[in-house]
Amino acid sequence: MKRFLNCLLLLVLATGCEKSILDRQPNDQMTEAAAFEDLLVTEKFLNNVYAELYGSLYNRTPNYLLAGTTDDADAANLTTGGYQFNIGSLSPTGNPLGDYWSIYYAAIRKANIFLKNIDNVPGDGAIKQRMKGEALFLKAFFYQQLFKFYGPFIIVDQVLSVNDDLALPRNTVSECASYITGLADEAAKLLPVAHESSQLGRATKGAALALKAEALLFFASPLYNPTNEVQRWVDAADAAEAILTGSDFNYELYNNYQNLFLVNNNSEVIYAYMASASTNAMEAANGPSGYGGWSGTSPTQELVDAYEMVNGMAPLNPDGSVNPLSGYDPAKPYENRDPRFYASILYNGAPWQGRAIESFVGGADGISIGTHTRSQTGYFLKKFLDESLVVNSSQRRAATWILFRLGTVMLDFAESRNEASGPDADVYAAVNAIRARANMPELPEGLTQDEMRERIRHERRIELAFEDNRFWDVRRWKIGIETFGKPIHGMRITRVGDALNYERVQVRSRVFDDRRHFFPIPQSEINKNSNLEQNAGW
Fold this sequence. Notes:
The protein is mainly alpha-helical. The chain has helices spanning 7-12, 29-35, 39-56, 60-63, 81-86, 100-117, 125-150, 173-190, 205-220, 230-245, 281-286, 301-306, 339-344, 406-421, 425-437, 449-463, 469-476, 480-484, 523-528; strands at residues 73-75, 269-279, 297-299, 345-346, 351-352, 355-356, 380-381, 397-405, 488-496, 499-508. It is 40% helix and 10% strand. It is globular, with a radius of gyration of 24 Å.
């Protein structure tokens, strides 16, 4: 995808110092007009709106995943915003993860400028309609991100100027959800099912419908739906099912879970951001320290414990004792686990680039307290990493970041249908298909709705590990205090003769209270807008 604009378009996107992020506008209206006189230049403008995906996705490049601010991983590098976030550094005057209110409204303004002008651009009508669909998708995506970070937002459906009323209140939760899904529906009508290979990275009909399903899932969830209006769950299930059963689509679960995240544009991918054609950022940021990596996202013992045994049994009981029916051996803690464990996490003894991981004390990859480039948990990220790529070399690869995939939509459907009407055959089928791909046993029959809810939540944690979902899932389920408000642990491994001793140890404390289910709106925006209400508790 083309990403870079010429000087003309950089001028178009320049912003001034007006009263609010909502009203920032081009300094030179003639320059804006010039950007929409030629379809090729207009396409470059659209590509710049796409570039906001790269610039806004949680500072993912070069070294940070949202998993590092959950109970699934530690943000090992103490210089990252993730570490500061974990110790409680979040307020209306400072968010170490970023000012996403400003980021997304700036991106929305670009989309609004494009949508205001596209119909008047000379050129092929079919291409313009497709481009319009892409801009609508991007606008819906940016609003969905605001919905996730902050809850209800201010709907801005036009390009505002300093002469407009900028003291706008936030819309209701229902209005926001309806607006996002409306944009997604409109985009889906204009977008193709697939693009030619030269256009990969552009939005498709499936991407728009997956975004709609996600928005409705959030709208139905406890954080947004405190009275549990069941119709919201019905709507969310229907939106996900439209992708699973749609005759237009040819998505299917990719047959190799580990390679799913390395083989670009495979059968399971609904939409992926084309991150770079030449990068080793993921490997350098998260690879094991003994191999030149920075160990940036270090899996926790909590996540390791969550992986079932191959027989489908939990290795530990809720009180932390060994489940005697599981076959788990504390002296051999990494044997006979869910295959997704081996695809996602590097542990002591795991093979990697010609040798075994040495995360024991004194090992090549061992814990070193206070060192920013070493795991404090004794584990390393494997998911997303290309084993053939040597960090300290000139090797690079084309990389993508999956935003929507079939497996996620299947779990969205299972959760929504279960909440709407209980664990019927379709709910079982969706979850069991995910487990079958991993060669895991089917769920036991006869589960109650509550039991199925816990099974689905567990399956999301395992299947979607490190894909950012848990950061949002825990919030929308409103279980952050009991989940994110606890210390995280790792495994300290020491040699005793020829044997290894495994000791579960606390790594860091975490800070979480009820107000952190939503982020605070930046105080600078509150100060500019007397009608803008801050999130509760901030």
